[in-house]
Amino acid sequence: MDTACNRTELTSFFHRHGVLNYVAIPLEPPEPNSARPIAQELYTANPFTNEWHLFDGRDHNRSSTARYYPNKLANIHGYELLAFGLYEFPYIFEVTGNHTAGLLMELLHNLIVRKLNGTVRMVRSERTPPLPGRTEFDLTFAYTSFRAHYMHDVSLKERGGYCVLCPFHTERDFLRHLLKPFSFGIWVVLGALIVGCRLLGHLFPALFERNLLEQIFFTAGASHRQPFPTRIVSFSAAVLIFFLSEAYNAKIVSLMSDSKYFDRPESVRELIESDFKVAIPGVRVSLLAESLPGKLVSRRRADALYRERGPLLFNEYCTMTYCYLAYLQTTIGRNIHGFQQYVLRDMVSEQLRTLQLATHSPFYDTLAEYYERYFQSGIWMYRLEYMNRKLVREMRSLGSRLEEVVFHFEDLVCVWVLIVVGWVLSTVGFVAELLWVWLEHRNGLF
């Protein structure tokens, strides 16, 4: 460089372009009796410490040129790496106390904090202004607009994607089945039983002193020794009524199964063939129309439904979100709005997860090399599988706790309906019996 060049402007120029390994050689014009210019004191600057490294150009040693390029990333002296990323398990997620954790945070902590002696701050909003003197974030995750310039993106080895959440209803419609518990053929059998018992009493009063149905249902009194035909008919009627009541109870219990009432698609293909609709407010559905043909509600309609119902919209419509958010949503069971959702088995769309560094970032080479070594050592995949297994264990533990519950509170509704219906029928029968006795007594008096 010309000795008249401003040293501060020169170092600022290299700093803006992310160049750390440079050495400036100030040269004076050659003397009249010399054929080459005179080299002054060589220098380079460390932007993280504002420290100058000065070298005597006359004390030149060709065998140790590395001393002119000190590793300025060996210690960045508390430099704050400002990062922004969309929360996606297990890479970035929030834990208690607004603390950010995840696999990517572990990578940055090991590299920036432990190896380079810096700090990391992950922000939650892309509208957060960068720190003074910076025009953009040092690093962004899964929120990338690809730029045309060279080498500022690091793609992770695995792919991400979106999953579909659908509502899962557990309400049971027992009343309709209680009021119509049997088929037409069973009703014919019951009618024939009632008519037959009444006819036997009228045709053979010596053998059937009391109504058989009264003896069976209401334990009406009868003499101890009954004729053999009476015992055969009474036993047959009791066995028939017993099996009918057991079949009725078994049918009610079987109707407690959710699959008896609700269509529950488990894959994207089954979702397309079902009656479910997918509503994603605030998202251009044209981007997903090919993945879910004919299932997407228009953006305008989805926005209107969301303004009208809020989150309760997803109690009737499916929606789509990051798979980690979908699985986390299912682990909590019923949400604060009182309904439950489940996740389809397969993804709707896959995408690359990308780390993008700031323009002319000095950390690109170091981050790319460190991530490659981190992945090749097996630590990355080990931690990735560990976090996924941990999430699966939490989901299984919640599922096992739910499976231990045989009956829920709403299941008791059918029991109360049976009891109330029995009370009503008993009351009607008792009142009818009183009226009948009163009428017989009145007719007997006259």
From TrEMBL:
<keyword id="KW-1133">Transmembrane helix</keyword>
<keyword id="KW-0675">Receptor</keyword>
<dbReference type="GO" id="GO:0005886">
    <property type="term" value="C:plasma membrane"/>
</dbReference>
<protein>
    <recommendedName>
        <fullName>Ionotropic glutamate receptor C-terminal domain-containing protein</fullName>
    </recommendedName>
</protein>
<keyword id="KW-0472">Membrane</keyword>
<keyword id="KW-0812">Transmembrane</keyword>
<keyword id="KW-0325">Glycoprotein</keyword>
<dbReference type="InterPro" id="IPR052192">
    <property type="entry name" value="Insect_Ionotropic_Sensory_Rcpt"/>
</dbReference>
<keyword id="KW-1003">Cell membrane</keyword>
